[in-house]
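Lab channel / #folding
Pinned by the channel admin:
"Please post every new chain as: sequence first, then the structure tokens as a reply. Keep commentary short and put observations after the output so the thread stays searchable."

First post following the new format, from NK:
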Amino acid sequence: MAQTSAFPSGELAQRLKKVAILGSLPQTQLRTLAKSAEVVSFEEGETVVKHGDKGNGLYLLLDGSVEVRRKSRRLAQLGAGQFFGEMSLFDNQPRSADVVAVCPSKMAVLSKWDFWGFAASEPSVVLSVLEEMSRRLRAANDALTD
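Reply from TO:
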């Protein structure tokens, strides 16, 4: 079962710097973001999010690896420095896939409200999320046409 981990905000800020969409942010902004994030740990095989559940925020992988699955099909494998759950930031639709930890994994979770509160002061993070969403959509389209 997922466990919440205590992380000093300075240490978490250093870890968030390694997440691609946050890497260009100044340390002061990362510390602010770290205060809003909840750090959660998952064991191998544990479901992080379930297809059809209400989306509640963005997951930033700090350590470990997860698989994104739809039914029995593997859609992607993500590791430290990557993220998932970004669609829930923009709509109120249910989760579009299962995400399962493939090894012990630790992630920072930002609620939709905390993300948008932060994005108001650092709008470049929204552009980074949209660029990654576009990349993922193109990859999905390419997979469908192969």
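NK: The first strand starts at residue 3 and ends at 5.
TO: also worth noting, The beta strands are 3-5, 38-42, 47-49, 57-63, 65-70, 73-79, 83-84, 98-101, 105-111.
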